[in-house]
Amino acid sequence: MITKSKLDRLFELLEQGASSSIRRIAAEQIGHLAAQHPSQTEQIINRITDIVLYKKSWSSRVSAAYALGIIASQLPKQSKSVFSEQIPSCSELGHRKRKLKQDAASSFLQLEDLNMKDIVNKGGRLLGSSGEELASTNMEDAEQQFKRLHTILGDYPLSENIVSNEDFEGKADSVAGWKPELNVFDKEGLIRNDNSTQDIKEEASDVVLEDSDFTHEWVFGKCFNKLRNHMFSLDWEVRHGAATGLRELLKYQATEACLDISYSLEANKILLEDIACRVLILLAVDRFCDFSGTLTVAPVREAASMALATVVLHLDISRVEQIGHYINILAHSDSWEVAHAAYISMQYIFAALNSCCSVLISLLKYSFDDITRGLLSEDQDICAAAARCLFPVVDIIAGDSPENPVPIEKLCNVLWQVVSTCDEDNSGVCDCLELICRLYKCVRQRNIEEANSLFSDHICQVFPFMLHNNASIREASRILANEILENNKILDNRPLFTIQQCRQWISILIALLFIEKDDCFVQTIFNNLGDVLHWYSGDDLFSSNMISRILELCLQRSFKDSSHVISTLLREEETLTLSGFQEVVSEIVDAEKRYGDREGRLLRFQQNICRMIAILFLERKEQSAMLCETLKQYLHSSSVFTLTAACQIFRYWYPRTMETGREEIMRLLRSKLEHFEQNSSDYVHFDEEAIDSFQLLNDILSIEKYLSSGKKSTKQKYSNIILNTSLTQLCEQGIQSYEQLDYENVSRILSEICGNYMPYFQELTAYGICKSTKSNRNEKNSVLDAVIWRVVNYLNNYKSRRTEFILQSQIVIVCSIILAQNMIQPDDDDYSIPHEEQINLPDKLTPYLLAMMNGLRYSSCVYLKQLSASALAFTCQLLVKKDKRKAVAKISENLFNYLMEALKVQSIDCQYSQRDGVLLAWKEICRVFGSNLLSSLPKMNELCLQVVENLPDSLESIPTHLTHALYFLKYTFKWWHTSLYRRCNEAVEKLTLFCGLRYNTADFDALDIATDALSEMIFYSHEFLIHIVRHLLPILDSNHKMERTEESILYALKAIRKVVLKLENEMIPCVSLFLMPLVSRMTHQNSEIRIIASETFGLLLRLLPLEDNSVKLGDTEKWLDEPEWQLQRENAKSFIHQLLGWKAREPYHLPVRLEGNIQLREYQRQGLEWLAFLNRYGLHGLLCDDMGLGKTLMTLCIIVGDTLEWAKCGFQKHSLVVAPSSVTAHWFQETRRFFGSSLSNIILYVESAKKRKKWLAHFDSSPLIITSYEIIRSDIEYFQGYQWNYLVLDEGHVIRNHHSKTAVAIRSLVAEHRLILSGTPVQNSVKDLWSLFDFLIPGFLGDETSFQERFVRPILKGKSLSCEQRDREQADILLETLHRQVLPFILRRMKSDVLAELPPKIIQNLSFEMNPLQAKLYNAVSGFLATSAKEQWLNDKSPSLHIFSALRCLQQICTHPVLLLDSGKDWIENVAEKLAIDVNVCYDWKCSSKFQCLYELFADLGLISHEEEEQVAQKEFKEESQETEWDMNEQDVGHRVLLFAQNRRTLDVVERLLFMEGPFQRLSYLRLEGTVSPIHRQAIITRFNSDPSISCMLLTTQIGGLGLNLTGADTVVFIEQDWNPVKDMQAMDRAHRIGQTRTVNVFKLITKGTLEEKIMKLQEMKTAVAESIVNRDNSSLQDLDTSQLLELFQFDSSDQQDTMEVKNDTESYHSSLKAGGPWESVLRTLPDLWDEEQYTSEFDWNMFVQSIQSGPKDINND
């Protein structure tokens, strides 16, 4: 049987998976589960069907349909086995066939009955949705569905003999609900059926078949019927889901339909024909579509067409031809949607029938004219669909078969006509171009001459689309042109262009180089360029000014200027693509402004243009001399762009020319480089430096003019600034040179101004002109401020720009020299290394290397960085080839150090710039050396891997070289060749140990880097994951006995989280291994550890359903097949099942026996297993068993067992038990009683401070220390120095006050396992629970404020007597939510459930009236208190008496008047005086009705004699007491009483008036309250339990209600009730617990009409709230599902609202409009649509063909 929750989790992933890959994996697993468990297959299928039909999410529907297909493909085909059995005679089958044909006419849609023209013209339309008033639901009855179908068909006369109500009806008790009502088999009595016996004909009686021989229920029956009936839903999502589901189902189960009754091939064909009819109707009436970019999206028509194609495979050829005829009718429709649907269906039918040539040829014969009409359609979508429908049949069309149904010449002419006549906005031309390309590839293989005449001669018609603004069209046209040119090169390389067309083509290539960035495409351009240039002579090609334009392009300094020159060139060559090019350039400019590297793009374009120039001149050798002169001229230029162009041209031209002037140019380049080296940058100037300098020079003159002509005060203010005429003269000279275009002189002047006068302008900005106050500020000063700032900014930018220019010049010269002298294939950017003797490196290589290094580190241009990186990597290859290892080592070391320096730069921008440049170099080096990286660069190996591999066993501090090695691995490992991964195995293992703090380091920055590096290495090689499992998971696993620190846990977690985030879905094979250790850290006291563990656990838990041990593992996951890890995987899954209650917990075997041959009861054994489960997985919990069930013993068992397990591993562990002082001795006695010989040196730390100190020295050797809450608060500093194994809080509700000193002290203790024992964890409020969990699992219930807002206040509001129904319901919901959240961490068993032998406990309330004295005093005091409080409130004074003190006064009157009257308070004496009450007279037990009731009770219990009763009893009390019932069956044994009061003073009065002076004098009794020393309390308890002569014990609930065992008593009496009901329950359970053999009677004495009755009602409310949270459900977790389990570990204080999918977008839309909500609320209700990638991947005809190839095909020719 499938685990229910696993299936639920798989469905959850299917619907809500984070990615399509996760959804698909979930679908596959659901399919496998369904196939493996046939008994549940139908249930799974029905659930999938609902998702397919009703989910708004596109991904959910498609994934669910895929799951349906998985199931369908794996189920056995029943039709074959049916045919193998004995079948009826031929006459019987013939009779059946005739009957089927007759019944089909009245039950199924048939092709011959359809009139597609009428359906198209008169039928209705199905759009997206018609609104809520017409919205379809999945609960439509048969009549509604029947009417809707006829509404869709419009006036078309589709009578009930074709489709009737029965087609839509279904019965719940039928496997396939549609089967009985269709009556295909049984209308004439062919099958025995009670529902159809009325019309059985006599002739049918001879051919009745037995069901047992020829029946089989089709498991997809209900699913098929549901999908079939929802094909015409008004919601497009439902239609799409139905069509998609039918597509997947019919791929594999088309031949199985109707197998639920005696199988008939004829019946199967009729049903498939019905589906075909329905799909055709759907194609005719569906009008839903949308647009994604330029793509028309018609998901319903696409899915329906694919379903139709799967059906066609199983129909006779005559039916297929009839379907083709109907599709042609659709293609003639005036509605573009219908015509579009026709061509879509053609495409999929042609694809499906590709292997059935005869059928396909037949269809193409009469479809060709319609396809041609579609190609010539003005509608671009129809044109595109018509072209796409021929993609699957290109081989047939281009074949040389005499039966070829399509005239290839006519088709090609039509296509070229479309290409030549369509406008620029027609996106359909893209598919036409692709079709031409496909045809060309096929035709050229058959007939080259025909290919040339049909295609090659038309290549120029493609030119207008090569610069189209649609990227898809550009790509299609380029691919076609490239195919033609490549093929022409292989053949005769004949000219395909005229001279003018060649010029146009070159101008288009130039424009493409400008707008495209793909390196592969650029390489293709240059390959074709050389071939084309061979066609013409130089004079013909260069007769125009094209070369001058191209040379002009390589010298442009801006993006805008370059695009302008290209536009001019296109215009001059009359290229018909100018508008498209300008639109593309406009888009590029917008994109580059926001995201791009405009300068780098310009330099890259310049490089390609220079490469083109080199190719052009190389093909025209007679003009090489002209190029030499041009290059010399460029090299003498003062323009950096001109110099760059010369270097780039030279780089491609030099290796392939033998021109004599090339060496002279090489010398010029070297001298230029020497000039840069020998001269300071101050003496190097470029024209580009003078850009925009005219404005600067004028600004400086205006500033000087203002300062020199200013007021005297201004001159004095700036007297320390040198003002002379030199600056003015420089500016005037600069302006004059600028006007004369002498930019080099302007550049020198700017350099002098920047060097000499920059401090002057900076000082101006620091003085008052720029910081004038608003009072003396005027408009003139504001303008001057702006001018000064503009000058300063320009000069700053000038300095950086000048540095970049110098750097650029050096880089391009150096790279050109290195590359030109050593390149074998200069036309390829992937440089090939020459032979060693051909390598030509400069004698002094250092300046070259320095220039490349500076380019990497300091250039801000990405292109220059990339150029430097490529050249440097190439140089390293040359050096390795020349065996110059020292030089290579130096380069490696410098690059390594530069990367470390870049990471230390403070400025983020500078750091990223330098780091990215150096990383580009390492990327190139890793790429070019590949698997030889470490052997060719041993220095690199020495600096990273060897450093990690040679880590010592201990580290006092992290060495710098280790940190550097970790950084290097973090940033570069992703580029390493895969063959190097095995070499890194040892380093990864050492790195894993380092992350686990095995080297005891405290450098946490280095640890962060180490975790980053480790996750990066594991991401690229999953084999390394074994080190995480082997070394880091044990650190988290609390069940693994090892020493660990908080820091080691934290950094192990960090590393694991980074690995999980990196690997994502690839963690699936080993996800279970990680869950168990993570759980043990999700409850850690350290918030950071807790949060990281919870987040990681949540990520992995969602993947758990996808882990399948039966799936074959990949090569990098083979280690999981080892028995060790297989066992761990199974244990991990077992843990999850145990946590959720799906599997019984593992039995726990206590390593020692309980002394005294004591055996644990069954429920105690189960409780111990729960505690062991918490221990095993590092969880913490509340043991909330009912009082008296042995919580102490179970806790001692787990403490002792775990302590001994650690001792076996050589570790001494210490545990701490904190308990109320009254039971600490009991803990000590119980420990020694059960484990005295197993656990020695137990410390009872409870005596005076002086005596306690002597025990401190024994703490280290003691396995268990027992102390009280009072002592832990005072001696907390002694306990904080230990990391406790177990920290147990007995009666842990003591810490419910979160801010108390005791609670704060206890939370400061660190423990591996935290446990609270309390029979009543929630006492006054649900906030008590938060305080307890803040100790157990801090943060689990959020912070205190959020918990108060989310739970406490609403619950209190909903439980008040005056609350509204809505508040009450909300409170119940919150209580249930809270209950579910804490469920896994609380174990609660009631005595009545687990102790059948425990006698019952009977609780009774004894109510009575006050006597006159009490009533008079009660009324007077309550009136006085109310009046006093009102007066003080009106006078705005704080009350003199606290509210609780006032209420206590009323309680005292109810108990005995003397408690209040003798309190010594003045206001009480005044009240007594007014009432004339004598206090001395009140010292009589008869003055209290409660005492008289107590006396009556004792008399009924037989504790006092009846003679005394007759003397003192009052008649009214006797009558009332006779009405009270209690269990007196054991009076002969002698009742013993526990008498509880709230405080000592009440006990004093009871003892004096009843036991010392009153009627109870002869009763022996004991007393236990706060004045008794804790060390003496246990002796009193022992005496009471062992001495039956003691009739009564007087106790306070504060002392006697906690942890005591008083089973010697069988009666409990409460003189007073506590506001907290838990205290009373705890007190009564001192007697009702294990060891009690008699019925326990509990009596509560309550005075009628007083405060005591209200206290009882409050107790009832508090008890109800507590039981709502902690109840019997906490003994099992079986009801907890996956989503609730995930919610358990969301440490979030905010409200978690369930995200529910909107089922009706129309309804939400209208309701939002009615409410007048914002548009955002409307948008939120819109369904999840699709993106273009989803659409194209779902409706890919190639993938569709592949998927149906595995399915059966059954085309019949009869």
TrEMBL record:
PROSITE patterns (alphabetical): HELICASE_ATP_BIND_1, HELICASE_CTER
* Coiled-coil features, chain-numbered ranges: none
SMART domains attached here?
Answer: DEXDc, HELICc
Please state every residue range assigned to the domain named Helicase ATP-binding. 1172-1339
Q: Name one Pfam family in it.
A: Helicase_C
Give any GO molecular function from the UniProt entry.
ATP binding
Q: Which domain of life is it from?
A: Eukaryota
Aminoacyl-tRNA synthetase recorded as keyword? no
- Name recorded for this polypeptide: Uncharacterized protein
